[in-house]
Write a structure and sequence with these properties.
Elements lengths: L35 E4 L2 E6 L3 E4 L2 E3 L3 E6 L3 E4 L5 H9 L22 H15 L1 E4 L3 H8 L17 H14 L28 E12 L6 E13 L4 E4 L19 E2 L3 E5 L3 E4 L2 E4 L4
Parallel strand pairs: 3-8, 8-11
Antiparallel strand pairs: 1-6, 2-5, 3-4, 6-12, 7-12, 8-9, 9-10, 13-14
């Protein structure tokens, strides 16, 4: 059963930058790029993530009205290769293959574990708690670029037809013309100010895969698998948490994503902060 999301993102304001570090921090700190957007509490319609069935046949997940009860602070851009490289250089993130050419592109080829390691590292660096979003939070932030993942209406006597129809629908949408990661902003900005949502990089969330039965008018969760996480992009899918290349498998539903990357949310602030020309600076205590 869904509960209202309770976030305590500090009142950083829309101008507060995301993974920006004070000049007093180590020289190997990430560059001052990106930024965050601050989204006020609101209600929104959300198609629950997971595998839902009735009498053994796949059905669409329930469509719920969910209320975000606190401000959601989320990175405007996906984490870049340059940012991730700093974490890897300090030994806090696994070293993985970097995109060729410019490092001012989204970091891809990333597993859920890699993304979580980066979130833990940047949290230690800044004193703010960064983490991957839940699927509900991602859908809220994605706004008009979040797709309703209802199953197509097909012959109920043949459950396989629903999954075939879904695959065909995703294929018909077409893949982005460019498969390699592109500079931030290439795929435009959504109504919430987030860049490249639904472009050619799918994003990890913290939400676990659920298998739910709707028999008898009640929801019965038969399986919660946190070894498989919800991944969001041009469509929703589910990936095993250690997968870096979605094309090699990993429990993806429908058409495999082009690339796996991530952006983070900011859950709260512990240090004192001040805003200088839109950049977040840490104020030494004492």
């Amino acid at each position: 059963m869904l509960i209202a999301l309770k976030l305590k993102a500090a009142a950083l304001g829309a101008a507060v930058a995301g993974p920006l570090l004070a000049a007093s921090l180590a020289p190997s700190s990430p560059p001052a790029v990106g930024g965050t957007v601050s989204l006020p509490a609101s209600s929104f319609s959300y198609r629950v993530a997971g595998d839902f069935s009735r009498e053994g046949r796949p059905v669409s997940a329930p469509l719920r009205e969910v209320r975000l009860t606190g401000t959601l602070v989320v990175m405007k851009n996906q984490v870049t290769a340059a940012e991730y490289a700093h974490c890897a250089a300090e030994g806090a993130c696994p070293r993985v293959a970097m995109p060729a050419g410019s490092q001012d592109v989204p970091m891809v080829g990333i597993s859920w574990h890699d993304a979580t390691a980066y979130a833990e590292w940047i949290s230690r660096k800044t004193g703010f708690r960064y983490r991957l979003p839940t699927d509900e939070e991602w859908s809220f932030a994605a706004a008009e670029r979040a797709r309703d993942e209802a199953l197509p209406l097909v012959d109920p006597a043949d459950p396989a037809q629903a999954w075939i129809a879904r695959y065909e629908a995703e294929t018909a949408r077409g893949r982005p013309a460019i498969a390699t990661p592109q500079p931030p902003g290439t795929f435009g900005t959504n109504s919430n100010g987030l860049a490249d949502v639904g472009g050619n990089v799918w994003e990890w969330t913290n939400s676990c895969f659920l298998r739910v039965s709707l028999d008898g008018g009640a929801e019965r969760v038969s399986n919660v698998n946190c070894g498989v996480r919800v991944v969001e992009g041009a469509h929703r899918t589910y990936m095993t948490d250690f997968i870096r290349d979605p094309k090699v498998g990993g429990c993806a539903a429908g058409v495999p994503p082009s690339n796996l990357g991530f952006r983070l949310v900011v859950e709260g602030a512990s240090p004192a902060v001040a805003i200088f020309q839109g950049a977040l600076r840490l104020i030494p205590r004492g």
